[in-house]
Amino acid sequence: MPPPVTIALLVAIAWYLAGRRIGLMSLVGLLFLWNLRLWTPTMQTLVLVTLATLAALAIGIPIGIFSALNRRVWKTVSPFLDMMQTMPSFVYLIPAIPFFGIGPVSAVFATVVFSMPPVIRLTALGIMNVPGELIEASDAFGTSPAQKLFKVQLPLALPTIMAGINQTIMLGLSMVVIASMIGAGGLGREVWRAIQRLDAGSGFQAGIAIVIVAVILDRVTQAMAARARPAPID
Amino acid sequence: MTKERVVVRDVVKIFGSQDKEAAALLRDGVPRNEVIERTGGVIGLGGASFSVEEGEILVVMGLSGSGKSTMLRCINRLIEPTAGSITVDGTEVTTLTPKQLLQFRREKFGMVFQHFALFPNRTIAENVEYGLEVQKVDKAKRRQKALEAIELVGLKGWDAKYPRQLSGGMQQRAGLARALAVDADILLMDEAFSALDPLIRRDMQNELGTLQRNLKKTIVFVSHDLDEAIHLGGRIVLMKDGLIVQTGYPEEILLNPADDYVRRFVENIDVSSVITLGRLASRRSPALPRHKSVGDLREAVAAAEDPILVVTCEHNRPVGCVSREAVLAAKPDAEIASLIEAEIPTADGSKVLKSALRKLSAHPAGLAVTDADGRYVGTVTQDMALAALTGTSAELDAAAQSERENAWTGASPNSHWTTSATTPSPGSPSTSPH
Ligand SMILES: Nc1ncnc2c1ncn2[C@@H]1O[C@H](COP(=O)(O)OP(=O)(O)OP(=O)(O)O)[C@@H](O)[C@H]1O
Ligand SMILES: [Mg+2]
Question: By CB count within 10 A, which of A99, B48, B128, B358 is most buried?
């Protein structure tokens, strides 16, 4: 796909999800990246982050829900989360290699594991922090557990869950960069290569590119989180 | 014909891990503090029994921590009772399976909460239709019902707003509408008006009364405010430390406090808004049937203590008054009807004293109190009203006394003052002279 088409598509998505301001910001950022001749690595990074995030959410959100609904699950999961978050990120690269070898698959795997804790934790917290009074009200009207989850708990936890998703994406991005050490392509590899050649200029360019991608992803997901907040005042 | 909708028998709720053990100890008569010490639990309810009748507002009262909310939530098992039995329309609630319980809650109960508990992410209409939504009523129908309920509570036009955009009073109306929208006809209300300011609160109390009469709902209303309980006008269940200390109409509780706790509770209330005229009315002096002659009644009149006597018609309705002196001075063959000096204003005996104070102040001779059919029950004078207000009323003491003797137990709101209203009539054989 030629870059202009991709850019148009991405800007359209950002605009739709987060509004005009952020849409325009994305446009400028992406054009700048194209201009830096970093288009291909940027796309590689985006694909890796997207894949890893989707996997992390697909696993993390259900775990978060179970943790919130069952004390025992939460008690087991919680210490793991603490551990996962304090562990230095490089460490995740090691176990991935024997399974998947050097390359993007290992990179995605390590990224998924590393970026999952926030979404688990915030999904669980969001659900557990739904006011007891509202749970009581839903019970009083004869709500089944499934109805309660989908009509009360998840909608009310949504802003918190979105914050978790945002953090997961940010962690994912940072991990994808680090994972270039084990052969993930993308912007991380540009940085890695610049380090090896002591080429400050291109290292800096790649760094800027990562920041731009991060800012776009962050703003878009934050805008989505804000939109998930209940009861806008008109 | 009143039907018991909810019957609560010996319900115990212990909070804590050893709840069953604690309940067993309690049943075996082990003192409460020992039970608490041995099992480490908190006694929420220590064996409460009462019943709620069809179409009544039953007010559960008590100080903070007395177990009111716990009691209310046991009825629909938001709190699982540890022991005891609760039946609603004949169904034992405590043994329902989770699935049956869901269905039961949908069918029987609407609930209103102290802090409204509206879902902040739903509009008012979406909140109000929530109960129907979980019952999978189709969208158009439930929205229509929700809008009806919204109109009923006076929130028409606010249905598309979010709870945050409404004032407290309006939010509570929405809470009420949510409970009304499901066709369940037992409303459970936990301090529903406590978070509202006094004026709005009074409005809501009045509206609840109107709604209740029109919709024939049965309401269990938790409150810690005695004035509110009195204003709602139903029976009161008074709780203390998880036990029920007294059940009855405000008047009965006021006149016959079961113990010092209850006495302290009712100490500061406005007597005139509780005591009914029927209760207060003096039955000391006989009514004078107008078709009788003075001779027939002279003895009874001579024995009468009141200076003004009430003349009644053939149907025992008050038609006027005459002074005692005038009767005694009249010729024996004069007909009572010919002696009537003035009309006498009447007042409905089921009304509270407060509602008649203005009328009473305008009529020094007093008011003739009648029952629901307009028949004469007794007289209320300014002196008697003053005595009642200052707590020195001989009539009320006598009424309380006779109640204690008869061990009278609650019946319908109308009969509770007429039961003792056996009007002494000189026409009846027992009191007629000869
Ligand atoms: N979940 C709980 N765990 C332990 N103890 C509880 C729990 N809920 C209530 N209690 C205790 O049960 C007792 C009765 O509480 P309840 O909430 O029924 O009182 P209340 O009459 O509604 O008081 P208030 O007027 O303050 O609402 C209190 O001593 C309270 O501490
Ligand atoms: Mg309470």
Answer: B128
